[in-house]
Structures are given as C-alpha cells and as structure tokens.
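Researcher: Next sequence.
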Amino acid sequence: MDNYSGIKVLLIGTGAIGSFYGGKLSQAGAAVSAVCRSDYNIVKEKGIRIKSINGDFDFKPDSVFKKASEYNDTADFLVVATKVLPDIDVVSIIRDAVKPSTSIVLLQNGINIEKEVTDAFPDNEIISALAFVCVSRVEYGLIDHQDYGRVVIGSFPSGVSGKVKLLEEMFKASGTPVETADDIISARWKKLLWNAPFNPVSVIGGGVSTKEMLADPLTESFIENIMKEVYALSVADGHPVDENLIKKNLEDTYKMVPYKTSMLLDFEAGRPMEVEAILGNAVRIADKYGVGVPYLKSIYALLDLINRKNISKNKE
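Model: Next structure:
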C-alpha cells in the first residue's frame, strides 16, 4: 500500500458513510481528522469500529473536533459526509476550515446539491462524490458494512482533475472500488435512478427491505416506472444515463443482501429524511424542463407529509 501520510483530510460527519470512507482514507495512510456532533465523546475516546463483509477494521481519527474552526491545519481535502437536509447549513459548518488550496468533496446523496457550496467558495475546487454501498450506523462508534462499497468521484461540474486522481489513488490503496467520472452530474442521475424509488418506497411501504419491495410484482412495476421518470429527467437535463441501467438496477437489487435503506433507518430513528435532495430537487428540475413525472410527484408529496409528521412527533 502506498503511503499518503502527507495528505491531510478533514472529515465532516461520522455517520455511516463518513465513517466508512474516512476510515478507508485513513487506511491508505492519509492524516484524517473528523468533526463530530452527537457522537463526539465516543469517537474522541474510542474511535470507530467498522464491521465489514470485507474484513473488520478500526478508524481512529488523528484529531476529533466539535467544530471545523477548531482545525488549525490546512486540509488538502475537506470531505462533507453529512445528510443533505434543509437545517444543515454546510457552508457555515465548513467555512472556517476552507483554505485556498482545499478541495471540497461532497460525499452526499441527491441531485443538484452542489450549488450552495460552489456559490460560497467559487475559488475552491469542488469534487462531487457518490457512494454505492450498503452501510449503516448501528450505534455511535459502530458501523455495519453489509454489501458493495464502490465510490464514484469527479470534478464539479465536469472533468477529472489532479486532485480527483489523487483521491482515486488513495481509495484504490485502501482496497476501495473507485471510478472517476468526467460527467459527475450524469453519475448523480445514475445513483438517483436507484435512490428515488427504493428509499421512499421503503418508508411509504411500511418499513420494507429491498427484497420485500421486489418480491411484490405491483411494487416492482411501480419502482420501474419511477426509474423511467428519472431517466427522462437525466435526458432533459443534458446528462443522460444509459436506459439499460433500469433493468440492471433491478437485477442487481434482487441479488443484494436484503437491506434497509438509509431513509428507512432515518425514519425509524425519528430523524429527518433527505426528501428534498432525493425527490424535491428532481421534481423542481422536472418543472423547469416541463417533464411529466406523476410517480415522482406522488411519492414526493406522500414522503414530505410523512417526514413532517415524523419530525413533529419526535420534537414533542
């Protein structure tokens, strides 16, 4: 394994995704520090244990902070692995740690999620990153990696920079499957092809796993129709995905270990769900281009209602 000890990474968020991929960058030899919220005390004291199908490992960040402003170094990569939620102001969270040479990596779900960060930091390189992985946080300091693990990265809005290639090398050094994408927006549409149906249906369907969703022909047809709408949006947006990916996504999900989606885990825990990043933004893009998306609009309306009620109930 190559040694990347001279590379400094500041990780924002140690949920399932941040912990897993931050741990992988640490395995490659990078100096990874982390900004935590509710899990600060546990991560600072014990680090993070990752139970993985590919072999368990521990991730002990070099330093642990409550705020990015406490990080007194210059990060080569500032990796944002928070949920994309209306009440999480990423720009404010990271501002004090962004230096002129810092590349900001948005390792997050959703479509059209980069604008606020690119507007706030026009002189910094923005790298958009997508995780194709079944991973969840069992409890603070304990992550369960169940399947897959590929990450796709690219410069935003397009291209593959030297820093993107360096990040690719580090992931490869840790044994992480990684791809670079010249058109990272198209890659985001590819991921939304899966996220847009499976995440919401897992919640609206009453807490069903991927296997349970596809075991029912009516639900499988419903999921396929949502995917077709996402495909149409990718075409209208000028970043078309391969239409054959609809069939491939269904086939791959059949083979997947039965999995509770991240959105379902958030719902069950009473946490806000990424409704806007995954559905709301897609619906607004549809309105912009005049594309009919009745399935997406229906699940958006239902999930938004469920989300608001769930948040309200857990505030009481």
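Model: The two ends are 51 Å apart (CA to CA). The first helix runs from residue 16 to 27.
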